[in-house]
Amino acid sequence: MAGVTDVVFRQLCKELGADVMVTEFVSAEGIMQRDEYTRKYTEFSDEQRPIGIQLFGADGVRMGEAAKKIIDWKQPDFIDINFGCPVNKVVSKNGGSSLLRDCPVLASVAAGVVKALGDSVPVTAKIRIGWDQDHINAREVCHILEDCGVQAIAVHGRTRAQSYSGLADWEVIDACARQVKIPVIGNGDIHSGQDVAFRKKNTAVSGVMIGRAAMQNPWIFREAKHFLATGMIDAPTTLEERWKLVLRHCALAVQSSRYGGERHALMAMRGRLMAYCKGFPGAREIRQQLTKVECLAHVEDIAAASLQSAQLQEEQHAPAP
Questions:
Q1: Whole-angstrom Cα distance, residue 58 to residue 94?
Q2: Could you tell me where the DSSP H helices lie in 34-137?
Q3: 234-269: pLDDT as tens digits
Q4: Cα(319)–Cα(321) distance, rounded to whole angstroms?
Q5: CB-based contact 127:153 (threshold 8 Å)
Q6: At 250, is the secondary structure helix, strand, or coil?
Q7: Burial, 207: exposed, middle or buried (Cβ in 10 Å; 0-12, 13-18, 19+)?
Q8: What is the CATH number of the domain that holds 24?
Q9: pLDDT tens digits, residue range 108-151?
């Protein structure tokens, strides 16, 4: 998730129980042409392992060269190829899910990266179930990727045409998992620990990938592990705990070298803050305030006012002694 799964957010998700993570995707051509500018998208800490660096592109040879450059910079645990992104600016460059329409090129990209890396690190891939409802070819694509030497595949249960609308088709994901020998990880509409347990029990997937749900609720990893271990729903995350993580995320972003100062960091965080506050008491007003934040102190003031307002409402609705 470009602009979301940066090194700071991954740190928080790891602390909350995420097992395996992938960086924001990065253009192979960007790696080849703009080393220093692009390298920031591939940064990770050793505490975040196992972790993969995700690439997109349409030239197998260049993709392989880019993957080797990454290995020279810093050894990830795997390289992940993105064949799933539906965004127009990626698809228009023949990247992401556009290659689901051109299986020979998709195969050349996968084989090129696998060949370039040899035995150094595994290569994985992420796909969607097809280009549109009339061209659902995920099972064929999984066989192609397996034959090319890809060692695991994440399947998002929507077509490119759906983008993020409608429902993920877990029947297709299940069929993919049953037809190849390599692990298949299911992705789409995972919002709770119960969702994780249900998909693990009722499909042949080897694992479950959580994406957009973590933007609003990174505690989902902790909740999922608790439910899998106990069969019980974890206690709801309190408003105070939510604001505590929001403020920590902001502080870590300010400290990060990625954004170049407090103002730029907080401006970059605005979209993330919008996702965090969904479901908060008075969320509409909070969102309006968050669109203007430029410093950490401003976010702290908004958090303090939100908590105070929630406490007053709780006191007003408390039963009389």
A1: 6
A2: 35-39, 60-73, 88-91, 103-117
A3: 999 999 999 999 999 999 999 987 788 899 999 999
A4: 6
A5: yes
A6: helix
A7: middle
A8: 3.20.20.70
A9: 999 999 999 999 999 999 999 999 999 999 999 999 999 999 99
Q: Is residue 318 part of a domain?
A: no
Contact 214, 266 (CB under 8 A): no
Q: At what angle do helices 239-255 and 7-15 cross, to 10 degrees?
A: 140
- Which of 85, 142, 176, 250 is flagged as catalytic? 85
- The span from the CA of 1 to the CA of 11, in Å, is 15
Contact 65, 116 (CB under 8 A): yes
Task: Tell me how far CA of residue 65 lies from CA of 57, 115, 119, 168, 204, in angstroms.
Answer: 12, 10, 15, 34, 34
- Distance CA(242)–CA(108), nearest Å, equals 45
pTM of the predicted model, to two decimals? 0.93
Reported residue count of the chain is 321
User: 17-46 pLDDT, tens per residue?
Assistant: 999 999 999 999 989 887 677 888 888 999
Tell me which residue has tokens 């924001």.
24
Q: How many domains does the chain have?
A: 2
85 catalytic per annotation? yes
Structural domain for 258, as ranges? 239-313
